[in-house]
């Protein structure tokens, strides 16, 4: 591959968005720039997914085996007395798959 501006040989360049061919003299490559946009959009989506799963894992600190996927950590959700007149109602939300299991008045 050669530079569209100066005809020089393009060299692989590493960026936060990925690796692609770039002119060592810094000329922009119109065709490659289009590709770069696609790469950065994909990267942004990936970043969002990571943020969401990190948020779940931070809250999922209680030892609880998920009945659906077997994951050992769950998030404790206290619903107070909204759904029960006597005991508080608790729910364990799996930190991995999000499965919610209801536990009544037996939270350690
Ligand atoms: Zn060039
Ligand atoms: Zn699970």
Write the layout of secondary structure elements.
Elements: E1 11-15, E2 18-22, H1 30-59, E3 62-63, E4 73-78, E5 89-94, E6 100-104
Antiparallel strand pairs: 1-2, 3-4, 4-5, 5-6
The structure holds zinc ion (2 copies).
Descriptive account of the structure:
The chain has 108 residues and is of the alpha+beta class. It folds into two domains: 11-58; 60-104, N-terminal domain of TfIIb (Single Sheet). Helix content is 28%, strand content 27%. The chain has one helix spanning 30-59, and strands at 11-15, 18-22, 62-63, 73-78, 89-94, 100-104. The strands form two sheets. It has a four-stranded antiparallel beta sheet with strand order 3-4-5-6, with helices on one face. It has a two-stranded antiparallel sheet with strand order 1-2. The model is unreliable at 48-56 (pLDDT under 50). The site of one zinc ion has 7 residues, from loops.
């Amino acid at each position: 591959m050669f530079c569209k501006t100066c005809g020089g040989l393009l060299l692989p360049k590493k960026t936060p968005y990925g690796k692609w061919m770039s002119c060592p003299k810094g000329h922009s490559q119109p065709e490659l720039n289009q590709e770069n946009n696609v790469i950065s959009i994909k990267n942004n989506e990936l970043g969002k997914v990571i943020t969401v799963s990190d948020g779940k894992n931070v809250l999922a600190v209680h030892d609880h085996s998920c009945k659906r996927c077997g994951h050992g950590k769950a998030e404790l959700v206290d619903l107070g007395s909204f759904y029960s007149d006597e005991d508080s109602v608790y729910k364990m939300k799996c930190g991995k798959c999000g499965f919610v299991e209801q536990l009544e008045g037996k939270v350690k």
